[in-house]
Specification:
- The structure holds 2 protein chains of 2 kinds.
- By secondary structure, chain A is an all-alpha fold.
- Chain A has helices spanning about 10-15, 25-30, 55-85, 90-105, 110-125, 130-145, 150-165, 170-185, 190-205, 210-225, 230-245, 250-265, 270-285, 290-305, 310-325, 330-345, 350-360, 370-385, 390-405, 410-425, and strands at about 10, 50.
- In chain A, about 80% of the residues lie in helices and about 0% in strands.
- A two-stranded antiparallel ribbon of chain A has the order 1-2.
- Chain B has 19 helices and 19 strands.
- Chain B is elongated, with a radius of gyration of 29 Å.
- Classes of the chains: A mainly alpha, B alpha/beta.
Chain lengths: ~425, ~450
């Protein structure tokens, strides 16, 4: 009998489950265990994927085990912090709290991770030793940057950098420079990014991994500035640095960057080879789904530039599977924005469903304002092209309102430029 | 230096015997290739360098040239692609190279290379190559059949199948009226095309044709998409939106996959159809509408009604005229006609021209189970056009897994694999499909990730 029951749609299932903290892992599993509809379902989004109640029931034990493992890790870290404090070893207590924050971040609970980090910072600030504070500030900077809160992230990294410089902790100073360079890159201020990466390289002297990351950053600045020869040289140096330490993930990052460089040069076969090699590198090494997503999305951009839309769509759908399996909500929003873009290129009016879904995902439990603004902007272009000028204008205004509130003028103009570039292709 | 020829004992009488020419590389490699070729029963000769190969290629016809690459493989590859493209009988190129890079493999594929053989040559891989070469050599070219689309207004439908006659007849009968039509058919059978034909052939031809895929739109958006909303009606209502009913005013509204709609919304559709007016979400004024409604479904609405998931009153409102679309499998030779039609369509789009199709490609297309029907065929042909070099659609332009399956069928003399071998092969295939992602492959295979990882280690996949 159960075999004949039609599967539920994810949107039906989620509507049925109250959005309470205790059910969050179960809601996550509904999404991650869902199956895609046949490839003929052109406009399928995550809500339309199928889910079987029986399969969910069979996996309850796994989810509960994961969840209790997670709680146990947090308790373990908290109790370790207490023990350290009792032994008058506050720096270790801070490290234990940071570990708990990392654990939360790993499962996509960014706001909870932030609470742990901020708690650690309060304790670290009271210590005579500055190392724990430098470390904590760096964690907060990375988290806020990943979350798109660039101003706050920059403040944390700057404090971390200033302290590290004072303490002559060159490794931490270089790490903070890398963080500040990434933020400047995201802001579209190439000169600032180049300065931070160059400064970081001065501090990173012996640390090959940091050298690799900073060289990669320099190369990225070169690429975005259109100085492709310069970028190539930096990427080569980054690869050498990662190869020296046998850092497989670092090499994959370089291959990913190289693929983008070749895409910019219009050498599509070479670009594709780089992305494939990067994915092959991931297969043999660490489990880095976020990096895999980035490579696939770049692969998709390559196919779009190549005018191979069916291949672009395949690549996006693979990225969608990764995002769904790992519950990467914000990455999934990016996936749908790209799918919407592909549909726009095909003049498919029904492509609006992807933008609507992307906006919905940006407003979830872990809201992402900057990404939401990007989604509005992309949706606005879609609607404009489909002839719906009023709504197009309204979405553009909403995007502008968010970016202005965030102080993101450069990002918005960068988005415009990127979209113009894509259209020109 | 050439080696004596051997006649292929395994080849069926109708088949053209394979003739392989190996060029360059260390003596050990050439010897190994010679041994493997002998084992496969195919004619094989070897020459030490390109100059001798050119002489051999000028004087005799070869099925494939196996070139051992050493230094500058990219330059060599480019040279061989260029040289062989000028040969009248176009032998296939198979570069042999130690640890080919991803870049080399992709450049080779781009240059229309038949296959890349990693050195040292693996027996199974060589066997596979021979099978594929034999299948490719046996391909015969046929001209593309002429296509005479059935034109319904500006809408073209392509078919020579008797199974489509009732459809054309029903369109001709129903189009001139304003009756509501229900189109039934599996995904990709052409429901929207049929609806468009009804619209273009009917009295509302000058009005708009608005299509909505109810299954694609998130449930919480469908109502506002159909009926529109006022600004501020809900959080994301940033501006007034004119709904699809209003947009279709004076024309036709096509509701695809109507079986996916919630009961509440079904009620609202029924009211709109009966009262000929709608209300925007958050609006207060009723808005009169004048639309012809065409609905479509790939589900059995009668079963849904019996299960209480579809309103009976709405069903009878919609099914005034019912048109049932056959699946592609039931349309006989339409696969060939549609293939020719799509080849021309995509050829034009991508700046390529096709004059023919090989018998093997056609056979693969005819044998495929078209679950996605015409839409799936269209996608397959679009991809084939993108990868095709020259003016022929060959089997090698069609999805790899189809060919593999067909080659396994061809290889009837191969020993029967044991369960472990079959499992290992299947895991390899699924891993390739999942792009090497163990998690995804485990999900497809329905096993735990750890189980799959263990099997991968055990079988050395």
């Amino acid at each position: 009998m159960p075999d004949t029951l039609p599967p539920l749609r994810v949107e039906q299932a989620l509507q049925l489950l109250p959005d309470v903290e205790a059910l969050a892992p179960l809601r996550g599993m509904v999404v991650s265990s869902s199956r895609s509809r046949p490839s003929t379902e052109l406009h399928c989004t995550v809500g339309k994927r199928h889910v079987e109640a029986a399969l969910i029931r069979a996996r309850i034990a796994d989810v509960v085990a994961d969840f209790s493992g997670h709680i146990a890790d947090l308790y373990d870290a908290a109790v370790e912090a207490l023990e350290c404090e009792q032994r008058d070893d506050s720096p270790r207590a801070v490290r234990a709290l940071l570990r708990a924050g990392d654990r939360e971040w790993r499962v996509g609970r960014e706001s909870q991770a932030r609470v742990w980090y901020q708690h650690a910072l309060r304790i670290a600030e009271g210590l005579r030793e500055r190392g724990p504070e430098i470390e904590t500030l760096w964690h907060l900077g990375e988290l806020d940057a990943a979350w798109g809160r660039f101003d706050a992230a920059a403040r944390f990294h700057q404090r971390s950098f200033a302290l590290a410089e004072t303490e002559l902790d060159f490794g931490s100073a270089a790490r903070a420079c890398a963080g500040l360079g990434d933020i400047a890159l995201a802001h579209g201020t190439w000169q600032g990014a180049a300065s931070w990466f160059a400064r970081g390289l001065q501090y990173a002297a012996g640390d090959q991994r940091l050298k690799g990351l900073l060289s990669l950053g320099c190369g990225e600045v070169g690429r975005l500035r259109g100085e492709l020869q310069v970028a190539e040289e930096w990427f080569r140096r980054a690869r050498e640095a990662f190869e020296r330490t046998g850092d497989a993930e670092g090499i994959v990052r370089v291959l990913n960057a190289w693929g983008q460089l070749e895409t910019d040069r219009g050498r599509y076969v070479e670009a594709l080879a780089s992305f494939r090699e990067a994915l092959a590198g991931l297969r043999g090494g660490a489990d880095a789904p976020m990096l895999e997503m980035a490579i696939r999305l770049n692969g998709c951009r390559l196919y779009m530039a190549w005018d191979r839309l069916p291949d672009a769509e395949d690549e996006i759908r693979l990225a969608e599977e990764t995002a769904v399996t790992h519950n990467f909500t914000h990455q999934l929003a990016r996936v749908y924005m790209l799918l919407g873009y592909v549909r726009r290129k095909q003049g498919d009016e029904a492509g609006f469903v992807f933008f609507e879904k992307a906006i919905e995902l940006c407003r979830g439990r872990q809201p992402a304002l900057r990404l939401e603004a990007e989604a509005y902007l992309a949706y606005s272009r879609f609607l404009g092209e489909m002839g719906d000028r009023d709504e197009s204008r309204a979405y553009r205004q909403r995007a502008l309102a968010i970016t202005e509130a965030l102080g993101d003028g450069p990002i918005l103009s960068q988005n415009h430029a990127e979209l113009d570039l894509l259209e020109a292709r | 230096m050439t080696q004596p020829a051997r006649v292929a004992p395994r080849a069926a009488p109708a088949r053209e015997p394979l003739r392989l020419l190996s060029v360059g590389g260390p003596a050990a490699v050439l010897k190994q290739v010679g041994r493997l070729a002998e084992g496969e029963g195919v004619h094989h000769e070897r020459v030490p360098a390109a100059a001798a190969a050119l002489r051999a290629l000028t004087h005799e016809q070869w099925s494939a040239v196996l070139v051992a690459h050493d230094s500058d493989p990219d330059d060599q590859l480019e040279w061989w692609v260029e040289v062989l493209s000028r040969m009248s009988h176009r032998p296939r190129l198979v570069p042999m190279i130690t640890s080919p890079s991803m870049g080399f493999a992709l450049r080779a594929a781009q240059g229309g290379v038949f296959d890349v053989l990693p050195l040292p040559v693996n027996r199974d891989r060589f066997h596979n190559l021979v099978l594929r070469l034999q299948a490719a050599v046996d391909e015969r070219t046929m001209p593309l059949p002429p296509v005479q689309p059935v034109a319904l207004g500006s809408c073209q439908m392509v078919s020579e199948s008797g199974a489509m006659l009732p459809v054309f007849r029903a369109i001709a009968q129903a189009a001139p009226s304003t009756a509501t039509v229900l189109i039934e058919g599996d995904s990709g059978t052409g429901k929207e095309l049929t609806a468009r034909a009804l619209h273009l052939h009917g009295p509302r031809e000058a009005g708009p044709f608005v299509a909505v895929n109810c299954a694609a739109i998130p449930e919480n958006l469908l109502e506002s998409e159909l009926f529109g909303h006022e600004k501020g009606a809900f959080t994301s209502a940033v501006a007034r939106r004119i709904g699809r009913f209003e947009r279709a005013n004076g024309g036709t509204l096509f509701l695809d996959e109507i079986g996916d709609m919630s009961l509440a919304l079904q009620g609202k559709i029924l009211r709109a159809v009966q009262e000929r007016e709608i209300e925007r979400v958050g609006g207060t004024e009723p808005i009169p509408i004048d639309v012809r409604l065409i609905a479509a479904t790939n589900q059995d609405l009668k079963t849904l009604m019996a299960e209480g998931r579809f309103r009976e009153d709405l069903y009878y409102r919609l099914a005034v005229v019912t048109i049932k679309l056959p699946s592609l499998a039931d349309r006989g030779d339409d696969v060939a006609i549609l293939t020719a039609y799509f080849l021309r369509e995509f050829g034009e789009r991508y700046g390529k021209s096709f004059s023919g199709i090989t018998d093997r490609a056609l056979e693969l297309l005819a044998r495929h189970e078209w679950e996605g029907n015409v839409r799936e065929l269209r996608n397959v042909i679009e991809r084939a056009v993108l990868v095709a070099e020259g003016d022929l659609l060959r089997a090698e332009h069609l999805p790899e897994e189809w060919r593999t399956a067909a080659e396994l069928r061809l290889d009837s003399t191969a020993p029967i694999p044991n369960l472990r071998e079959v499992e290992a092969r299947h895991i390899t295939r699924v891993m390739m499909h999942a792009d090497g992602q163990i998690g995804e492959a485990a999900r497809l295979l329905g096993v735990h990730r750890n189980t799959l990882a263990r099997k991968i280690r055990e079988y050395g996949v």
